[in-house]
UniProtKB/TrEMBL annotation:
Gene source species: Ambispora gerdemannii
Gene3D superfamilies hit by this protein: Potassium Channel Kv1.1, Chain A
SUPFAM superfamilies per the UniProt record, alphabetical: POZ domain
Alphabetical list of InterPro entries matching this protein: BTB/POZ_dom, SKP1/BTB/POZ_sf
Signal peptide: none
Name of the molecule in the record: 12633_t:CDS:1
Domain BTB: 22-64
Length: 93
């Protein structure tokens, strides 16, 4: 792999670790009906998923300030974690 590509991947990985750069909160349901919070980068979700490209559009997405809020209480956290791995590593806290 070219050095430029390796450096770019390394730098983007560092960016993923910066929680102050997250701009989407994903709330999914657990078995007790409580919501579990994941945070991610909308740019990565849009690039990796046609669904999120549409879901995070101005026509569909809800925002609080600069933060996209994506609420899906009918999706379990286990399903979300599995699904997110299918689209590449998405970091959450």
């Amino acid at each position: 792999m070219p050095e430029f590509t390796q450096n770019l991947i390394r730098d983007l990985t560092k960016l993923l670790d910066l929680s102050d750069e997250y701009n989407i909160t994903i709330l999914v349901g657990d078995t007790n009906g409580k919501l579990v919070k994941f945070q991610a980068h909308s740019l990565i979700l849009r690039a990796r998923s046609p669904y999120f490209k549409r879901a995070l559009s101005k026509d569909w997405s809800k925002k609080e300030g600069e933060m996209h809020i994506f609420k899906k209480p009918n999706i379990s956290p286990k399903i979300y974690v599995y699904w997110s791995r299918e689209f590449g590593q998405i970091f959450w806290k």
